[in-house]
Design a protein that fits this description.
Strand 6 and strand 7 form a beta hairpin. The chain has 2 helices and 10 strands, in the order H-E-E-E-E-E-E-E-E-E-E-H.
Amino acid sequence: MTTMTSWDLFEDLRGAQDELLRMNRAHGQRLSPAGYFGQWFDPSTSTQAWAPALDISEREDAYLVTVELPGVRAEDVEITFEDGLLTIQGERHFAHDSAEEKMHRTERFYGAFRRSITLPSHVEADKIEASAQDGVLQIMVPKAPEVQAKRIQVRVGRGRTALKPGAAAKDGS
């Protein structure tokens, strides 16, 4: 079964692109030579920033946003929804004390992150729920009941029949 919604995937991609450009302009950052999307290098501070990977899926009754946040405590994550924009932000802290350990390689990214996703206007913002387990954050964004798919029963008749106004009300279906 196919459900039609007014959610524009390309609008979401444009939003992500706009966010990337805003971050680049605001911080003078550029994509890292490592080539990973969502990770930047700021030459002025020699630090890397990161953005966690996420998936957006759709069920009949809700959208599900799944975010990879290994090593991030739930109390270090803030989720907001305003004007159709779901924002997940927080911070992953560096776990090693450099005074006690000599680091030979650091490939994981630390520091503040922020991801924003444009959602359709037909969601129930007051019913959004979030849970985290094993480094994976899941955000359930319920759809408003009036936009959920409804099954329409096809009545069978003899020969060529046409629906007449009020016919459904007369036969009780």
